[in-house]
From TrEMBL:
It comes from Suaeda salsa. It is found in: Vacuole membrane. GO terms for molecular function: calcium:proton antiporter activity. This is Vacuolar cation/proton exchanger. It is a multi-pass membrane protein. It comes from the Eukaryota. The lineage of its organism: Eukaryota, Viridiplantae, Streptophyta, Embryophyta, Tracheophyta. One of its GO terms (biological process) is phosphate ion homeostasis. Its main location: membrane.
């Protein structure tokens, strides 16, 4: 009885600390953590559960502890009221631009919490399954917005938002990180491991090739009839399947054969300067899974609001849809992840920063974009990889400039400044243009409509 009592007491003390403690040293538990996990942890804060631990009822204590960890366990908790406010604004018919703004703001903490929950689940599944889960859910917000936009046949919004996510990671996040890190570490030599950067760069170049070829085909169309006969859509679908296969190979490379290239290198001080404290799971597996499902459903609801009100916001604010989709959506939707990358650049941990920026860009380019093409194929929507001249040109220059920036394995603030200036110029470009994507596709639609009118 005494030993049993001690066991229950130890379990209770574990719950007082926020959940289930896992066995093993901190080094063992940290094994397999990716840069995304470590970066996201910079915005988390420890929960004080002393008052909750005094509650008699175990079920109530567990519920409150979960609420404390999931809702209040982040520095972005102040933004959670935007979630019910967005729903109320939609239900009671407030201005559609307000629904858009509140929904976009509410997606910021939700995206960070999805990263937190996937890491919690990985404590129980192991680093490999946890890595797969992170690779799938790491850009859940972008995927949900894209699929909802496709269901409403808003192909332009899908292309703009995905292009914006890649550009923001390569230029804004990486540029800000390198600039701030260079200023904060003027007297230190800034180095990073090129192996991870090289792998991501060649994958981004492969993705760029798949975008360039449909664009080059479109240049050969001199008339609407020729444009209608182009195999651009079929080429895009085949290329998307190739990109997804390449991404699967990348996951094998990242999670099995060359895991050491991608694991976040943490020093003896730990991620947050707390002396290498043991990492623990603060919520249980099924609790984490339930929270993850719930968060995903809320993200889907808010994403539907964003997609449905983006044109209204564009008209009300006098800003083009292209600028909102390429600039505003990625900045707000990935603010938590971006902030974490900048924080670790300040600490001169550029490997973590590169893992976040390049990893996210690669995931969007090689997984989310081709997945949207395949999903649109299934849905009967004709989405291809032709992002038009200006958009594809911006993507190409961004990838090339980033690759040159990282070629020597060192960094300073001037490199970051150049990336930021490139992003500003591209942002200004999309601020002044409001033309739809894929004019060739529009020509095709006009040609088909004219042909139908002639027939009937």
């Amino acid at each position: 009885m005494e030993s049993c009592s001690r066991t229950h007491e130890a379990a209770y003390m574990g719950m007082e600390d926020g959940g289930l403690l896992l066995k093993g040293s901190g080094k063992e538990i940290r094994h397999g953590r990716t840069a995304h996990n470590v970066s996201a942890s910079s915005l988390r804060k420890k929960s004080d559960l002393q008052s909750i631990s005094k509650i008699r009822f175990g079920w109530l204590r567990n519920i409150l502890a979960n609420l404390q960890e999931v809702i209040l366990g982040t520095k972005l908790a102040i933004l959670f009221p935007a979630v019910p406010m967005a729903i109320v604004a939609h239900v009671y018919g407030f201005g559609r631009e307000w629904v858009f703004a509140l929904s976009l703001l509410a997606l910021t903490p939700l995206a960070e919490r999805v990263s937190f929950l996937t890491e919690q689940i990985s404590f129980f599944t192991g680093p490999t399954v946890g890595g797969l889960l992170n690779a799938t859910c790491g850009n859940a917000t972008e995927m949900i917005i894209a699929i909802l936009a496709l269901s409403q046949n808003k192909i332009e919004v899908v292309k703009y938002s995905l292009l914006g996510s890649i550009l923001s990671n390569l230029l804004l996040v990486l540029g800000t990180s390198l600039f701030c890190g260079g200023i904060a570490n003027l007297n230190k030599e800034q180095k990073f491991d090129r192996k991870q950067a090289d792998v991501n760069s060649i994958l981004l170049l492969l993705g760029l090739l798949c975008h360039v070829l449909p664009l080059l085909l479109s240049f050969g169309a001199k008339t609407a009839v020729e444009a209608a006969a182009l195999p651009t859509l079929n080429l895009s679908r085949v290329s998307s399947i190739v990109m997804l296969l390449a991404y699967c190979a990348y996951l094998v490379f990242q999670l099995w054969t060359h895991r050491q290239f991608f694991e976040a290198q943490e020093d003896s001080e730990g991620d947050d300067g707390e002396g290498g404290e043991e990492e623990v799971a603060v919520i249980g597996f099924w609790s984490g899974f339930a929270w993850l499902v719930g968060m995903t459903l809320v993200i889907a609801l808010l994403s539907e609001y964003v997609v449905g009100t983006i044109e209204a916001a564009s008209d009300s604010w006098g800003i083009s849809v292209s600028f909102i989709s390429i600039i505003l959506l990625p900045i707000v939707g990935n603010a938590a992840e971006h902030a974490g990358a900048v924080i670790f650049a300040f600490k001169n941990k550029l490997d973590i920063t590169l893992g976040v920026a390049l990893g996210s860009a690669t995931q969007i380019s090689m997984f989310v974009v081709p997945l949207c093409v395949v999903v649109s194929w299934i849905m009967g929507v004709k989405m291809d990889l032709n992002f038009n001249t200006v958009e594809t040109g911006s993507l190409a220059i961004s990838i090339i400039v980033t690759a040159f920036t990282l070629q020597d394995g060192t960094s300073h603030y001037m490199k970051g400044l150049v990336l930021l200036l490139c992003y500003i110029v591209i942002g200004a470009c999309f601020a002044v243009i409001g033309t739809p994507l894929n004019p060739v596709n529009n020509i095709v639609n006009v040609a088909n409509t004219s042909a139908n009118n002639i027939v009937f």
